[in-house]
Each structure stands twice: as structure tokens, then as C-alpha cells.
Write a structure and sequence with these properties.
Blueprint: E1 3-4, H1 19-29, E2 33-39, H2 59-72, E3 78-85, H3 92-101, E4 106-109, H4 130-145, E5 151-152, H5 164-181, E6 185-188, H6 189-194, H7 201-210, E7 214-217, H8 229-242
Parallel strand pairs: 1-2, 2-3, 3-4, 4-5, 6-7
Helix pairs in contact: 4-5, 5-7
Length: about 260
């Protein structure tokens, strides 16, 4: 790998290590580009907070730390300030305004919940309900149409256990929309390392048939995840078996 755009920090509440440790490991790994994309703050109504993301009041400090590292290590590695962001229609505009106000450069889409999160169940929970699959695909496709997302993290996060032909039908529409909007898709190394339901071979064979641009993402929640060459090699083998060609870099879409 020469670039990783999917990197978390302690502010999300389920990652460890200092930001500088991530940078130093990225340099040791030989990365030329490191994008920090911690779970984005969201401007929810009535003071609601998620339990897996940084709070809005932490955004300024997050930006300051990453920008300082970018300046101090500028002669060795390109560092970028981003977020992993859901698309929640009711709160999206206010959240984008908040992020722009703190100089956040880019966002990757992580569709962990549908709707506007509040009262919803996680996308990763097993389901054989076609309507949940449809909702997931529709919301991701609406997100692509905003033009705000650099790529889609773990696009196969939805844990659909129903009829494979139904999965193919809706995920093929998803992949075609990604191509139409010019949005790459991510093979997620954390999912591969931990044996999660993603990366899903059914999804990636569809993506290969549709010619989707694909990137690897460490989804690093530990600094040493950036040194995990073995999982990268497994991901490349997985991609080859599915017929996927990996893009080593992507163009960051400015918020």
C-alpha cells in the first residue's frame, strides 16, 4: 500500500494509540499518504450523542492535532484531515457546515445505521428482510448523489442473509450508481482481519462484473494496524479471486 485514507483516533471511543504513533507506523510501512478519518461528529437535534463517534465539541482539537502532524511530517508523508461520515438526511447539511467550519478536507461514507440513526438498528445486524437491504442501498445511493464522499467504506457492511438473487439485484444497482457518480468502493482490511461479514465475496464479484473502482482501506483502530502487511496480502488475493483491480490511490473530494 502507498495510501490509506481510513484511520481512526481515540476520540471515537473504540480506538487506541496516539495520532503520532499512527503517523510513525505509516511511515515505517512505506505509506506516502495517510488520511485520518475518525467517526465524524454529527449535529443531532436535542443534544443526542452517538456512542461510537467523536462529539462536535472535539472537532476543533481533532483538526488542530492532525494539521500539526501534517506540518511536522510534511517532508516525509502527506497527511490529510477527514472523517468517516454517515448520510443522515435530516442532519446532513448542518453536519457538513460544521465540518467545513473546522477545515475537514474529505469524507468517506460509512453506513453504520439507516434513517437518521436515532431508533434504528445497526446495519451490521443479520437480516433476511429485503426491505432493509433496499433501504440500505437507497440511502447509500442518495449519499453518492450528494457528491460529498471520496469513497464508500465497507460498502458490503449490510449483513443480508436472504436470497442471493435478491442481494444481487439490489447490490448491482448500488454498484452501477457508484460508477455513475464516480465513487470508489473499499475492501475493508479490518473486516478481513477480524472475520466479519465483510468483505463479502458475493458483493465483490458483482463489483468486479460492474467494473467498480476499488481501494484498500485499513480501517485502523490501532496504530499497529498500519503495519499489518499480512492482511493486505490476504486482501489482494481476495480481490484477485473476485476479479477486482485495486486502485492504489483515490482523488479526495473536497467537502
Amino acid at each position: 500500500m502507498i495510501a490509506n485514507y481510513h484511520t481512526h483516533t481515540w476520540r471515537c471511543g473504540h480506538a487506541t494509540g496516539t495520532e503520532e504513533e499512527y503517523v510513525q507506523n505509516a511511515i515505517s510501512r512505506g505509506l506516502k499518504t495517510l488520511g485520518f478519518s475518525d467517526h465524524s461528529p454529527y449535529v443531532f437535534p436535542e443534544g443526542y450523542y452517538s456512542n461510537f463517534r467523536m462529539k462536535p465539541e472535539q472537532t476543533a482539537e481533532y483538526a488542530a492535532v492532525i494539521n500539526d502532524l501534517r506540518d511536522r511530517y510534511s517532508n516525509v508523508i502527506d497527511i490529510h484531515l477527514g472523517v468517516e461520515l454517515e448520510y443522515y438526511p435530516d442532519c446532513f447539511a448542518d453536519t457538513i457546515s460544521h465540518l467545513k467550519g473546522h477545515g475537514v478536507e474529505y469524507a468517506i461514507l460509512g453506513a453504520h445505521f439507516m434513517g437518521n440513526e436515532i431508533g434504528e438498528i445497526p446495519s451490521i445486524k443479520q437480516t433476511d428482510d429485503e426491505q432493509r437491504l433496499i433501504r440500505y442501498c437507497r440511502q447509500c445511493m442518495e449519499a453518492m448523489e450528494t457528491g460529498c464522499f471520496t469513497y464508500i467504506a465497507h460498502p458490503d457492511l449490510i449483513n443480508f442473509t436472504g436470497d442471493p438473487s435478491i442481494y444481487d439485484k439490489h447490490m448491482r444497482q448500488f454498484c452501477r450508481k457508484a460508477n455513475e457518480c464516480g465513487v470508489p468502493l473499499e475492501i475493508n482490511l479490518l473486516g478481513l482481519e477480524e472475520g466479519r461479514n465483510y468483505p463479502n465475496p458475493l458483493f465483490w464479484k458483482i463489483a468486479a462484473e460492474e467494473g467498480c473502482q476499488t481501494v484498500l482501506g485499513c480501517d485502523a483502530h490501532r496504530a499497529d494496524a498500519l503495519l499489518d502487511i499480512a492482511t493486505e496480502q490476504k486482501a489482494r488475493k481476495f480481490a484477485e479471486e473476485c476479479g477486482i483491480i485495486i486502485s492504489e490511490t483515490v482523488e479526495l473530494k473536497k467537502l
